[in-house]
Amino acid sequence: MDTLLTWLVAAAVLGFFFIRYWRVHKKSETLARAAAEKGANFSGGPQAQHPRIDTDHCIGCGGCVKVCPEGDVLALVDGKAAIVNGHKCIGHSLCAEVCPVGAITMVMAKPSAGADAPRISDELETSVQNLFIIGELGGLALIKNAVNQGRDCMDVVAERIERENPALAGQDIMDVVIVGAGPAGISASLRAAEHGLKALTLERENVGGTVSKYPRQKLVMTSPVEFPLHGKFSKTSLSKEDLLAFWEKVMQRTDLNIHTCEGVDAVKKEADGLFSVRTAREQYRSRAVLLALGRAGTPRKLGVKGEDLSHVLYRLIEADHYTNNNILVVGGGDSAVEAAMGLAHQAGNKVTISYRKSEFSRLKDRNIKRIEEHINSHKLEVLFNSMPTEFRVGSLSIEVAGEVRELPNDFVFIFAGGIPPSDFLKAAGIAFGSSEPVEQRELQATT
Ligand SMILES: Cc1cc2nc3c(=O)[nH]c(=O)nc-3n(C[C@H](O)[C@H](O)[C@H](O)COP(=O)(O)OP(=O)(O)OC[C@H]3O[C@@H](n4cnc5c(N)ncnc54)[C@H](O)[C@@H]3O)c2cc1C
Q1: Best of 93, 131, 133, 143 for a ligand 1 pocket test (most atoms within 8 Å of beta carbon)
Q2: 81-97 as b/e, with b when 16 or more CB fall inside 10 Å?
Q3: Closest among 427, 392, 441, 430 to 412, alpha carbons compared
Q4: Residue with the nearest Cα to atom 37 of ligand 1?
Q5: Is residue 277 part of a domain?
Q6: How many domains does the chain have?
Q7: Parallel, antiparallel, or unpaired for β 199-202 and 173-179?
């Protein structure tokens, strides 16, 4: 009798946990299915490269779901992988790498998402022959992609030069000019040296591109990268300082021809087929040009009165330079939230985030959790549905849900994105929008 009772209790306990597990599983699957339906037509979906899942071949192992560094981009729905949060995908490609049956390929976003983007071929060539676009300017985020594209594109240039007329470059004609020295431009410059090309790199600021503007000690890579003239860099996580120091060392060793603080104002293809590349100092002539300008461009301004005062800033590098201040951070993306949390940790700061929407909707999972913790523990305050209306020395005005408030203020950090260099590209004759259904075009330069 006792044994029967023990069995009955055990069965009841097991049954309870099974039903609970089943209900939780069912609920998360319903949520995932709803999200997948949204993800399937890409409303708010991926803006650039993203996985395409062949559901006929997917075996539902879930490897892709687990490996995604951005969290919940993918989920299993009805036993198959599906995109559920497409807007969070920034194209790490790890899902495609781990899929044991090759059911995932990386593709560009649908044509409408690329309508504002320059038209680029599989060889990364624009509509102007021998004028190429590499790195984030072409729509692919991540250091790894920029480095790979710089390398692959320079291989195309070297092969053409070898085939057409290797001896053309002379005293005043370069084989190739690379514009921009971020990850894509550095990688292309190193590869050009490897090929023995006569190359010049022009950078309007300093070497390192967007990486040099990350906050101090930010960790930068998520998968191994192969650098020309160095080989495989197998560390998957290193600080921005380490990466910049590494580039500096490799570039010194290689004696690259890089002009820093020399921005390019215009690129034009002349009647003789050569490019003229104009800066404030010089006009260079080249057989090919690689544009590695990034997408950060010029910081987007709010158009608010007092925005050009010196305490209104568009970038934060050293959070610990700011203590005992009243600080407003404007924006609702990862950069804004990370900067605000960094500032909130410094002694005596009172940090407020102003975001024009009613909630954060495009943050990385880890930032969603962290910002909630910061709000709940009163380390910072968030004003949703708000917009600053005037900045002054010592104070500012801000409209919150229709009501104007005055706040004490020492510094403002604005993270409203950048204006991409579309006018520059159009002036160079580059066509925009896709002439083909880009979603069908597989990405060949990212592996
Ligand atoms: C806050 C933040 C955090 C990020 N974190 C990561 C991360 O952890 N891991 C990761 O893999 N990726 C990360 N990324 C993305 C990564 O930084 C970019 O994808 C990468 O830097 C793109 O490299 P790029 O060479 O194409 O462009 P950029 O790095 O933007 O470099 C472009 C260069 O071109 C120069 N330039 C522009 N116009 C001209 C001109 N007219 N003349 C001459 N020079 C010009 C610019 O000064 C700049 O130096 C992050 C991005 C941001 C904004």
Answers
A1: 143
A2: bbbbbbbbbbbbbbbbe
A3: 392
A4: 293
A5: yes
A6: 3
A7: parallel
Q: Which of 74, 48, 53, 54 is closest to 62 using CA atoms? A: 74
What CATH number is given to the structural domain containing 71? 3.30.70.20
Structural contact between residues 185 and 203, judged by C-beta atoms closer than 8 angstroms: yes
Question: Residue 35 belongs to what domain range?
Answer: 2-107
- What pLDDT, in 10s, does the model give residues 102-112? 999 987 665 44
Cα separation of 64 and 84, whole Å? Answer: 13
Domain boundary among 107, 125, 145: 107
With vertex at residue 391, the alpha carbon angle to CA 389 and CA 394, rounded to the nearest 5 degrees, is: 135
Q: Which residue has the CA at smallest separation from atom 41 of ligand 1?
A: 264
pLDDT, position 37: 55
Are 264 and 279 in contact by the 8 Å Cβ rule? The answer is yes
Query: Where is average pLDDT lowest: 26-40, 123-137, 144-158?
Result: 26-40
Check: pTM over 0.90? Answer yes or no.
Answer: no
My answer on whether 79 and 95 are in the same domain is yes
In the structure encoding, which two tokens stand for residue 45, read together?
Answer: 């979906």
In sequence order, what DSSP letters do the residues of 14-58 get, joined into one string? HHHHHHHHHHHHHHHHHHHHHHHHHHHTTTT--SS-EEEE-TTT-
Q: How confident is the model over 11-52, as pLDDT tens digits?
A: 777 777 777 666 655 555 565 555 555 544 433 445 567 899
Using the 3D structure, point to which of 57, 75, 107 is the last residue of a domain: 107
Choose one of 293, 419, 423 to mutate for the ligand 1 pocket test, by most ligand atoms within 8 angstroms of C-beta: 293
Residue 408 domain-assigned (yes or no): yes
**Cβ count near 171 (within 10 Å):** 5
Are residues 313 and 282 both part of a single domain? no
